[in-house]
Amino acid sequence: VYYRSVVHNELAEHGIYLDFSEDIELPRVMDSHPKGRLYVxxxxxDILIDGFWxxxxxxxxxxGMLKYGKPLxxxxxxxxxxxxxxWFYLSPYLQDKAQALLDMxxxxxVNQLEQNSQLVFRNQDFAALQKAVFxxxxxxxxxxxxxxxxxxxxxxxxxxxxxxxxRTEDIDWFSYEVSYRHKDLRFSHDELARYFKSKDEFLxxxxxxxxxxxxPQIFAEVDQLLARSVQDTDTVYRARILNxxxxxxxxxxxxxxxxxxxxxxxxxxxxxxxxxxKRNPDLPSYLQTILRGYQKAGVAWLSMLKHYRLxxxxxxxxxxxxTIQALAMIAMAPEGSVNLVICxxxxxxxxxxxxxxxxTNIPYAIV
Length: 367
Known about the structure:
The protein is α+β, with helices and mostly antiparallel strands and 367 residues long. The chain has 3 domains: 149 residues, no CATH class; 110 residues, no CATH class; 74 residues, no CATH class. Helices cover 33% and strands 24% of the residues.
């Protein structure tokens, strides 16, 4: 267990990794770097803060375990039975992290952080505590404030933008709605627009809570999207379907963007953006040996566009035989379908020659 956790983590910092054979049976070890979690609640007239190290966003180990000064502890965790124990790795930096928290907070009335992971603050010290809690880095510590205190603390929130997309009857467009959320909080775009327009530092909700938005840029980016869209109703917007990959690229560049909705549109965006050409066509057997690799890729591209009912341009250079690729698409069309080829008069018989040479099964007429 010591090698699996302590030694393994220390070596990993130098790019050296231990590989354990499968026949070595090890008990479960929580050896990831935990995040701090603070529960803030009322205790009579005082305010109590409970601190935990959280592993895998699930297993909460009291901060007080640091008192043993050991890199490994075998312990229960919050909410577990007395017999339900596992090994926890406490990296050296956690002691510094806990001390930095104490240095940031005002002096507590009772400091039992090492005994039972608790700090108690007097109500008259609330103003100093309020400022200190606001300064706590949300990347290091997750704050869970009791409902009874929600209206007294200023909470920093990191917004996520939910973009719900769906197809429209017009195949060239898709529609979408936008909302914002942080945990159980929900905001509309109009609500946030009024807040940012007011230039207020804090967002005040109708139920009396006060928030500070730590990533206002997400609103600005969504606002730019809306400005380039057509507004159908108060909450529904439309955009050109060929812009959809841009929306999904936003999601890749910023995890705070969540694109949800129609699987058809999700696949379309992925295929266009990644150019994976998933919709590989079932070419007639006589074309399998005739078409070159780049020509098969061209037919796959056209086939994908057809699958999504999109227009497109096959833009190969002159002489790379775009004609045979277009005729391959016609050859794969359902029996009885009619296709119209519009071309300069000088190329009419070139098309006819290509059909006679490669696609004798395609009946045609020159009009």
